[in-house]
Structure formats: C-alpha cells, structure tokens
C-alpha cells in the first residue's frame, strides 16, 4: 500500500497544516493501533441504539436526532450471582492484596515498564466528567423523549463501578464478557419506577455500555502495555474509534428507521424481509416486562413468574464446587469447573437457538479437544486464525447476500 499511494503532501486551505495520503510502511505497533481503531469502530453496535429503535419503531415516538446522538455518545440473575460468588471465593485474597498495594504506593511503580509508561490519569478523569456532564445535559434537555430524568442516570454509572472488578476477572480468566447490567439495571429501575419502559431501557443502556466498554478498553490497554505501545496513542485510538463507531451506527440506524416502510412490523413486511428486527423485538419485550409491568407484579410472591428467583441458585452451585475443591484437592479436573461460565451460556437466548449452541459445541469439541490432543502444533498455529476466519466468513456472506439478493427482492429460500 505504501508503494502505491501518492507521496505528495496535501495542504489544508487557510492553515499551515499539511498531511500525506501515504504514511509509509507501518511497524507492528502501528498495525496493532490500526486494528484496534477499526475493531472499536465496527465490532459492536452501541447499546443505546436499541432505545432509539424501539422508541421510533414500536412506540412511534418523535425522537430528536441530537438527543439520540448525545445518548449514544455518552452511553457507550443466576449468572450474576454465580459470578459475584465465584469472585468472592476464588479471588478475594489476591484482589485485597493488590488493593492495599495500590493505596500504599506498593512496589508496582518500581517496575521499569510501569515507570517508563506511567502517564497522568487526568485524561480518564476528563472523559468521565465530560461524559457525565453531557449525560445530565441530555437528560434535562431531551429526557422526556426517553423517560429518563437526570437522577435516573446515576444507577447507570453506579452499578458498573461495583461489578467491573468481578466481571473483569471473569473476562481475564475465561475470555467471556458477561453483561450483568442487562438484568440488574432493569430490575432496579423496574422496582423503583414501574410503568416507564423507555426509562428502564435507557438506564440499562448507560450501565451496559459503561461496563462493556470499560472491560474492552482495559483489555486493549493491557495488550498495549505488553507491546510497549504508548498509552497516549492507545487512548487517542480508543476514543477516536468509539466516536467513529457511534456516529456511523447512529447515522445508519437513523437512515434505516426513516426510510424503510413498516420496519420491525412483521405482519406488514413481506415474507423473508431482513427488516423484522429480532433484537429490537427482544428489547421491546424486556422493556414491557421490566419497565412497563414491573418486576413487582411479574416476579413477586403473588406474580405469575415468582419461581424465577430460583435462578439465584448460582450462589449455591458456586459454593458447592468451591467446597468440593477443598475436600478433594488431588482432583485437578474439579478446579476447571467454572459455574459462571456454564450459566452465562444461556444469556444468548432468545436470539440464539438450539442450533447455535449445538454448532458451537461441536466446533469446540473438534478443535479444542480432539485436534488439541493429537495435533497441538497445528492447533497452536491455526486455531485462532480459523476462529476469526469463521467469523469473517459469516460477515462477508451476509454482505454478499444483501448486495446480490436482498436488493433484488429475494429475501430467503422457499423450499
């Protein structure tokens, strides 16, 4: 690419600034930064887009674009209890030791890499303060459109502050990011203020985006620390990628919502239409269950689904495994039982069905059990490349099907 791009610098009119379309060959650190900014821009949709989608498509509310833009920018039960219990039983001691060292100054600052790469925290404090200020401004200016007053934002920031440590440990040890905020924030707002479905989903968007983005940014900073990438470059890359992602996703979502007729209305759409919005239907159902009806009427002792509280069995299962590990320390395989990881597998429903789980299970057994045992060299070299290839194949086929079939009015097979 460096050999084919023009090398002549371009001048910005009215300024002394110039830039080049040819930055030259990238080193490995620049490649990592480029991958991170692209991944940050396109990996996940902002969670607050669901609020905007169901507001316009299901509740038929007239939502202000700039209020939606501020919402997207500022936001970015059994498994939950099992995760907290697992963290308390297995990681409390080491966490407490690190916590004491961080307050005492500890010896972590004597590490040569920490001293060379240590930077001021005011960048992160500036992001926190500015985003909270914009959030409060958005709530006071456009709060009626999303039923979210300024005080409703506070739980969205407070809950991730409590859960980021145990969920970060789970992500570091298993590679899975479980979003406990999807349930806890809705449960809290539904108990406090039932009858406000959009308020419930808006609060969930803030808590969800705060938690997921925090863990994602921490993992990227960890990678940058290992590769000696300057924190300033990583910080700018993450912020720029998040801004591009929010602007692109909101722009495309707003365009689709305002141009596609009968979007998300299954009864009025043609058979096989790609605009049935399965995820938004799930979010809409959640908003009615947790926010509209409220958990006090759905899940209390006199409610229709009162037995849902048995899902807190995650505490008992985690403690049971921990006790068995202490009773039989020679049984190494028992230590590999991770109750939160097992219970988290069900959080992909209802969008994911039985076919998805069986496909994941079969692929995992073949490559992470049989091939790992017999062909470890091949597994070490190609397993993760194959994983990314399968994901990329789905994305490319979806794009190809949209361009070649959907634009011609062909939405699916009719056997």
UniProtKB/TrEMBL annotation:
Q: Which UniProt keywords apply?
A: Membrane, Peptide transport, Protein transport, Transmembrane, Transmembrane helix, Transport
Entry keyword annotation includes Protein transport: yes
Report the GO terms under cellular component. membrane
- GO terms for biological process, alphabetical: protein transport
TM regions (residue ranges)? 31-52, 122-142, 148-170, 308-325, 355-372, 384-405
Signal peptide extent? none
Question: What GO molecular function annotation could you give as one example from this UniProt entry?
Answer: oligopeptide transmembrane transporter activity
Family under the similarity heading: Belongs to the oligopeptide OPT transporter (TC 2.A.67.1) family.
The entry's protein name is Oligopeptide transporter
